[in-house]
Amino acid sequence: MRFNKRIQGGLLATAMLLAAVVVPAQAASAAEAQPAADAATNVTLFGITDFHGHIENGGYLATALKETKAKNPNTLFVGAGDLVGASAFESSIADDVPAMEQLKTMGLAVTATGNHEFDKGAADLADRIVPGIAPAKYVVANVTGDVLKDKVQPYAIETIGGKKVAFIGGVFGTLADSVSPAGMKGITVTDPIAAVNKYADELSDGNEQNGEADAVVALVHADANDLTGLDANVDAVLGGHTHVYETAKTKSGAPIIETANYGTQYSTTDLQITGTGKDAKVTATAEKHDVFGGEKGDTPLYQSDETVNKIYTDAKAAADAKGDEQLGTLAEGSTFNRGASKPGDLTTRGNNRGVESTLGILNGNAAKWAADQAGQKADIGVINAGGLRADLDPNNDGKVTLKEAHDVLPFGNSNAVITLTGAQLKTLIEEQWQPANAQRPVLWLGFSDNVKYNYNTYNATIDGKTVPRAKVYDLTVNGKAVQPTDTFKIAGNSFLLAGGDNFTVFQKGTGYVDTGYIDFDGFSDYLKANPGLEAPKARNSAGFSAVKLDGNTVSFTVSGLAFTTDEPRPWGIKLTANGVDFGNIGDLDFTGEEKGPGAGSVTVTKTLTDAEKATFLENAKKAEAIDGQSLSIADASVETLATKPSDQPQPQPTEPALALADENNNALKALSLKPNDKKTVRAFVKGENVEGTKIYWQSSDPEVVSFAPKDGQSGENGKSRAAQASVAYDEQTLLAHKDGNAIITVTATVNGKDLKAELPVAVRDGKIVKPSLYFTDANGKKITSLKLKKGASQKVWAIAEGKSVEGKPVQWKSSDPQTVSFAEKTAQSAPNNGSSNAVAFNAQTLLAHKDGKATITVTATIDGKALKAELPVTVGETAPAKTAPTAGKTAGKTAGNGLAKTGTDMTLPAVFMLIVLGVGAGAVSIARRQQH
After folding, report:
1. Cα 911–914–916 angle (5° rounding)?
2. What's the pLDDT score for residue 654?
3. Are strands 299-300 and 465-477 parallel, antiparallel or unpaired?
4. How many angstroms separate the CA atoms of 50 and 63, rounded?
5. Of 588, 631, 486, 534, whose CA–CA distance to 836 is shortest?
6. Where in the chain is the domain with CATH 3.90.780.10?
7. pTM for this structure?
8. Rounded to whole angstroms, how far apart are CA atoms 199 and 193?
9. Domain 668-916 adopts which CATH fold?
């Protein structure tokens, strides 16, 4: 340990002045020729951190460095990490070669590693980045592993002005949590303070065997305030990582400085070094300098160095050319835009950050996906509206280029994850309504499409200013109600997750991890992996305000029902609020407003029955208290209706009969859903007396499709409501979980007759690219052969998959009809499909006649490709007599197990009586709707 290494600058200056007085002229001349060992030398460190490949600023930095060297030739250019990685487009697209060329040209001598130097793994740092920035030396004392050996040292000693200055590197101790684990195998990360102190002590103990230096500087990629524990043998510290200017001191008084990011600031640290080795005395001062000034901070304070700037201009030209590379495609008619201040006016796109946008939802999905790819399984993705700087497809050609994608996300922020509780997630959404002094009253977040919520809006007076506010309710993730103690891993950019844009609840989150994936890179990869992206048709939130009750007449406004640019406008909504069914409501107002939540609003008025009024008020009591508002909405179901529901009567089953339809009473024969989708399905019963009829629901595979819990999951939920005549219905909400096929079976017994209806459901993630044709059994399980007993029958499904399968004929054939034939004597039939593409179903019932073998063949042409599937069938012994199961034995008792047995409140209102009229048992028409 050096004795009294650090002394105060004032004492040193006094000692130097006295020495100058007593030194003879001859001695002074000799000192100029050859500095004495105990002579004072001033070394200047020109320092930057978190450059992140912002090569547009490199030319200005180079000039600042030249001017610093002109003042003191003993100047050394050093860095504190993250000089590359998470870079600007022009550098990032060229794997940061331009950034490395600039740093090399500027003469970077030594730098610490940051976390972003490990973005692509430790091997990438050792084998690409280190040689790329040569002759600069990368140093880090607290990260070790074989791949770094001889490539990255704990410290480097540079001789300047005749003095040996040691630079010890470090990076924050939770590095492993901030980069992909795949690239850190065999790498050990320890406490940076302990590691730096260890080498600082060795370099100051007088033992030449373990190295000696005249001054020791720590270059640590960590917040300046986290470095105060460095010991007395450290003479100066340069910090980094947090992208802000900060200063602090070690316990012994050594200065710690951290400048802002992207080359917009630099530091100068002056080291006054007297003596050598163990006996050297050092005093240090540090100062911050701006590269840009002016009112907006974007006016260069230096002329740009031509040589260094040319690296930027050349890189920009190459990047602009490469920007034409196609990354992805959009579905026909899909628009991914930011919010407009004047709905429908495309010249105002991007001006309104206070509304939900299709582009925000897309980027929320992409953030979640990117975190998953980096090994951080996220529950939710999110992006701030200010992070979206351009619309995705400005020329509307359906193709997304690299430049178009980069224009959307130009900042080069890291993709990160953080964990919030359910209560904090609710607070996060409410923080969209900004503080009273904020520039914008509302900043809307773009959430992944598995997040849905409603909210009550109101005005509050804060600090004498009236501002909009909201209380969130009906918050769900993946269709499940969010509880305060639930936890959710949320993926987003590092700016937002650090509490940017006044979303301060993120600062109370836990488990923050930087994935090492740049948001733009993640977005680009998402576009490549998901061609034909289809824009959402409906918003995932709705607002309620101005709830009033005058006698039995209730009125309120529902808002935020539409997007604001050129997306298709919905006809209206199907609404339930505070337990009262308000039916289908049209005539939405699309003029919108800029203070949130945007276009698409309607004022609802209804005169309630006494029973409805009591229900409405009882539910209203559950709403969170709101300033100045006596009534609020506590629960609501808002379903966007793209078109006006059909006024035409729907087919009616013969007596008795059972038919299936969607929530708008359009008949269903099949469904295609995506994971996490929800879909309401209704079962209509026709007969002489259906009051009290029990309807049983069953999913063949609850892991693919199950039912939302309903009324305590009871099998008997009170009397049915068929009342006057002979038509009743019951409904269930289907929950889609994972890729697969399932058959929803609905049974009932009417007038002593057992009835059954089947609804095949395909769940796909939308990535089907190859057309295919295959068989499944009645449970949706793929089969390649079948054994039947003589006299038996078996229903078999043919599944067709491709980009477009709706209406394509499927032909069935038996190689030996005497052995196996079809119950329905049809040579071919069109596939039944409730969606517009992806998957279609077609079924036949096989009849086994005699012992033998037959091959069932199905053929279809999908996406221009002729397909064939064959099912070998073996018929054996006579089958035992079968007893058809009764409806009462068909299903289990809990919706949670994928089974539901309900007879819920089945009275059909007059409007549904008109809708159901005219269904024939053998001819059910299909009115297809796009699934949302």
Report:
1. 110
2. 54
3. unpaired
4. 19
5. 534
6. 324-449+483-529
7. 0.51
8. 10
9. Immunoglobulin-like (2.60.40)
